[in-house]
User: Fold this.
Amino acid sequence: MSRDNILHKVRTALGRSAGQAVADPPPVRLRVPEIAMEDRIALMRSRVEALAGKTARVPTMEAAREFVAGAIAGKTAVASNAPYLVECGISSLPGVRTGIREVGELTAVCAQVDIGITSADYALCDTGTLVMIASPAEGRLVSLLPPAHIAVVPRERILTGLDELFTILPDPAAQTSSMVLITGPSQTADIEQILIRGVHGPGQVTVVIVG
Amino acid sequence: MGKRVSLFVTCMVDQLFPKVGMAMADVLERLGYRVDFPEEQTCCGQPAYNSGYHAEARIVARHFLKTFEASEAIVVPSGSCTAMVTHHFKDLFTKEPETLALVHAMEKKVHEFATFLTDVAGVEDVGARMDDVVTFHDGCHALRELGIQSAPRRLLARVKGLELREMVPSEECCGFGGTFAVKFAELSGAMARTKIDAIVGTGANTVVSLDPSCLMQIQGALSRAGLHVRTMHLAEVLASR
Amino acid sequence: MSVEFDRKIHDTLADANLQLAVYTATGRLKDKRIQVTAAGVLPDYQELRTQANAIKKHVIDNLDHYLEEFERNVESHGGKVVYCKDATDVSDFVLDLAKRRGSRLIVKSKSMTTEEVDLNERLAHHGLESVETDLGEYILQLAHERPYHIVAPALHKTRYDVADLFTKELGVARETVPEKLTLIARGVLREKFLKADIGISGANFLIADSGAVAIIENEGNVRLTTSAPKIHIAVAGIEKVIPRAQDLAVFLKLLARSATGQLVSVYTSFLAGPRRAGEVDGPEEFYVVLLDNGRTKLLPDRSKRESLYCIRCGACLNACPVYRKIGGHSFPWVYSGPIGAIITPQFMGVSHEPGLPFASSLCGACGEVCPVKIDIPKILLELRGDVRKSEAREGLNRIEKLAFRIFAWVMTHPRIYEMAGRMAASIAPTGDGKWIRSVPAPMSVGPLKAWLSERDMPPLPPKSFREMWRNR
Assistant:
């Protein structure tokens, strides 16, 4: 069997025996800087915009709903099952499909609509990243299949960066089968290194910061 | 009486570019050093080592260690040959603890010429004058193994009449690489031509470097291309007045 | 050096368009890396490299322990780990699974590891359609070529090459605008994603404490490959394991910066097992194929073991003046550039292409940019020694060996050395003090001929340094 054969080769080459203890790995290196909320918001917006993403900052959940209503006017959209979108009243906007819990239906809808609307579990301001944790509330396909993605994020979820994320979530696998970090629109530079957005994933990403 | 230094001129300077060795001795003596030349010296062994002949490299390295055992400080007009002694000799003698001890003692005594001036002698202005526009080529071993970048530039900055123009990029290899230059001649030549494009782009009349081997490659390619840019070792520039 | 290696180098150097394309593309990637690793942008860049190196060293030195931990944790999430010793093992596993599930169509995201084992060709041979979905890889699959560069696989193709290829292979109207070419590929591949039963991805990191794989990309094809089909198979070399999810904070900062000059890639997928109860979408089955394929051969030697630290960022290719001249397809195996030059001889044996470790000026630019601090030049030097040992065993290259024995003897006999030098000077052309373009035919052999094929040589001086020193 290849498993035992490979592990045996590894141990022989390293001079180790099965089950032999190991010294501690180098200590975890996480440095969380202090960044004031206003600065986080400003940084988040400038990073997303530098990647040709769009951002908006709205004062209230109602204003978030207004903003999204404007953005999807005349278009078709699907919203994830995130409670925050329900609270904002975004899920009940006219023309928004939501509450889908069956994968076949979700795939079909996401492949048809113009816009996918989600919240985000966190945002990382130093890179302009959205952190999407798969759950009953957030499917993977809503932020992936439609050509445009709108993420509505309350400001208190904006973290400083990866180090803070992994401080809060030392092991994301404890709560999800999938955590995806999204930093700007889908892009490729595979033909003559010319940057093209929206190759497989959404070509437009809009981050709406609430508060 | 000044301090003593020994010259390791390298086989290349001995056989092909003796003026570089004379210039180096001249600069050191002007700074008050008593300069000697241990006559038993030949080569550091790098050609054999880089070609994979470790046993042969070890034989030549031992000869070097013996030749310079009594010297207090050894100055070398080459970053590459310096790095062979200070960074690679130890890998040749991992299984010989006694020789390894000699190697470690030697590592502290061997100095590349430019950094010997700035870091050991503590001088930047050696009183040189050369009315010329020059560009500086970073030899790869000097730059990446020895970390030498500012020393030669500080020395050049103090040469009266001299203007330094940096190449873009200055840190890219000239394509010499020892036996690489003849084993992969066509490739080495292509790399040299990219280098001389960068040199010509500066509009300088002279290319200066710490390494005679890079200068041989660059001058060889310049000459083949019919370009009238000359090459000089830093020691020759610093000996000018 | 093999005739083939020599010919490929020559052909690449002779292709002016290719020279410009490769030099420009690598130059751009190289400059972007420099910008985002500069002290003003990432002050702790060197510390991160040191930490990454320490983590990789620790893991590789205790690899069996972390593989077993990874395996346990993947299985605790309902995934399955499949160890494969070679190409046949991998394709047998995929074929068997496809047969049992009745699958015909597979979508693939970019993976150097699957290139290593020619997975697509093996699956196609058994009637399975396996489609590359990374745009560059898709182009190369249509062209039946292997990647030119670890991270920019179609770097050598122009828009016109792609236009011709799409017209011929997809039967679409000819388009030469990159945006439109991209849209064509998006359309074709989107359909494949939605129809495929199996998605095969690579993995940048195997995370032991989480039992998860992490995959980075920019296009979204990895996300589609790992989310849309019912089955996800991640294929990775056994060396890809890291101890903790928290270590990603170090590696993610280094990887995208080194690879493409981005702060982070557009998408980082952290995947731990199949879809869980209540989750809306995601695969029903999750497999991780752990591939040896020669990696265990690199473990016994403590210093060469470092080669397994590689995170496949491609920074060494962009920094390498040799890669930038000879391109990716001159290299004898799927891995090109400096990292290819050190791992190919170790995976395939030094006699696979004995010239490979010598195709370097040892300039050190690769080691300088390596985010995990692999001492590539030093490993090249060790491999050069290994080539000589192998030649000695097989009785090859005796003349050169003899030449270096003579070299060593001359260099330890200063009187002989001096005499030899003066003899050479007495017969060499003087060139009237000018640099010499050619020498008489009988002298134009070996290294001298090779030197003069590209460059002029210096005239030998009338007196050596030691003579001048004695006479002064």
Notes: Residues 62-293 of chain C form a domain with the Rossmann fold fold (CATH 3.40.50.10420). Chain C touches chain B through 66 residues (CB under 8 Å). The first helix of chain C runs from residue 3 to 14. Chain C has three domains: 1-43+310-396, 62-293, 428-471.
